[in-house]
Amino acid sequence: MSVTKDRVQAPPSEVDVSSEVLSSLINMSGRQRMLSQRIALQSMLAFQEFDGALTIARETLRTFSDSHTALVQGRDGLPGLFSPALREAFHGSGDVAKKITDFIALASVALEAIERGSPRANEALNALIGSVDPLLTHLHAVTAVYEQESRRIARAQKKGQQDLIERIKAIAKEAHIVSFNGQIVASRSNVTGREFAVIAGVMTSITKELEAVVSAFVQKTSAG
C-alpha cells in the first residue's frame, strides 16, 4: 500500500464550517484511535494465521489512511485543516501528521511481511505494536483540538448572530422613525403628500415585517 504524502492547502474560512461538519470531524478523528488499535490486533491475528485477519487488517488500514487524508487535505465536504490550531496540531512541533504516516508505513510493511511469510515478519509486527501506544496519545490530543475548535467556533458564531440581530434591530428602529415622520409630513401636505403617505405606509409595513423576522430569528437561536 502506498502512503499519500500530506499536502497543506489554503484553508477555507471558518464561517463556512458548520456544526454538522465539525461533528463529523470530531467523530472521524476519534475513530482513528479505534482503527489504529484494530490494525495492530488484526495484524497480530494474521501473524498467528487466523482466517480473514489479514484481509480485515488491510481494509482497516485503508480506512485509517483514507480518513487521515480526508482530515488533513479535506474531501467530500470536509474542510481540511481550516484553523491555525489544527495546522499546529498536525504539522507543528510534534509533527503528528508524519507520525501517522509513519504508522501507516509500519503497518504496510508488517502486513506485507506476514503475507509473504517473511522471517522479518515478527520484527515488523513488533515495531508496529510498539508504535501504537505513542500514536494513541497523539491521536487523542488531535481529537481534543477538534473539540476545542468546535466550542470556539460555536461561541464565535453565536456572537456573530447576536451582533447581526442588534444591527437589524437598529435598522428596523431607524426605518420605523423615518416612516412615522413621513406620515406626519404627508398629513400636512397636498396630493403629493398623500402619495408620499402611501410610500410611508408601505415602509411601515416593511418595518413591521422586519421586526417580526427578527423576533422569530431570536426565538429560534435562543431555542438552539
Automatic annotation (TrEMBL):
GO terms for cellular component: membrane. It comes from the Bacteria. It is found in: Membrane. It holds the Pfam family PilJ. Keywords: Membrane, Transmembrane, Transmembrane helix. It is a multi-pass membrane protein. This is NarX-like N-terminal domain-containing protein. It comes from Paraburkholderia sediminicola.
